[in-house]
Design brief:
With 358 residues, the protein is an alpha/beta fold. It contains 12 helices and 15 strands.
Amino acid sequence: MHEPIRCGIVGFEYGHQSAFGTALADEPKAEIVGVAGMPDASEEARVRGREFAERCGVAYFDDPWALMDAEAPEAVSLCLPPERNPEVVVEMASRGVHVMSEKPVAAGSDGACRIAEAVGRSGIKFTFGFHAARFARPVSRAIGAVRGGQVGEVRILNGTHLQVKGPRYTISVEEARRRRAAGEPSVGELANHGGYLFLAFTAYTDSRVGSVFCEQDAFFYESYRIAQIEDLSVVSLEYESGVVGTAVVGRTTTKSLPTTDVRHEIIGSGGVLHVNAMRDRVFVYGEFEDGDEFNRGGFDTPAFGPESWRLYVDDFLRAIIEGRDPELTARDALEFHLTLEAAYESAATQRVIEVERS
């Protein structure tokens, strides 16, 4: 029996940390030994971090390196802004600490390359938070079927990933203006959600993207136009194997759907596979709440079976124990960022862009 892996939780700037931290806290294979925020973290993030530390019965530190020195965790869950993430991952790697990172892992491919190089040098286990791309159970079953030859040779891929819930999780017009005036970056929806499709497509094709054509704009949100980020993208992908893919990624204003609309179509020489990533859910119709702007029409959608983020955390811990790579690696993160940058260049130039690799 392996001793529980000593885990630190660093950063609560985004909501995923609550899920990942909770999964680690619930795991017999892990032990939470401390929680930390960055010295310049927002007060909201500090409050979330302190509350989580209190629930776990551990100390909260205002600096991640104070946590590292005091508790010496073997692994950390990082949830930091992408522009801050590479420097922290590189330092964690130099200390031999395994890293589970929020997505996107960097602001661009240079940062993702720094991470991949540091992970390669150190030998640590690294994974990142596009969990539904491989661990949502309908998707993981589809990957298994494709790898098992059930559709023959993959020829064409189509995918949709539309985040719903309207303006609830988007930046306000006032916040967009503040960020633009301050020169602070904002993350568009292709960077935020595109990996859920791109990384699933990579598993279906077992091949790298060769070239990209992309069209995108801020169709739904004025705040996105002000912040100069997109809320909807249509991306055509040609893989080195000859497979052609189309991905539609964005955030709509729809409030009535219960959760993200995710669908994959895999067309092969021997068959066609359709994937609805919402299938492992129970649709419950409850009471409406008057006055709740973001009420989803009385819907609730509890999943049956383990959630994708719990399976993702389990894979990370098992990779450490078994001495193998996680399902999602630093190499996958770099490939995602190279594809993403090609898509952005294509959208700006209206040309097909080849993915450049050194």
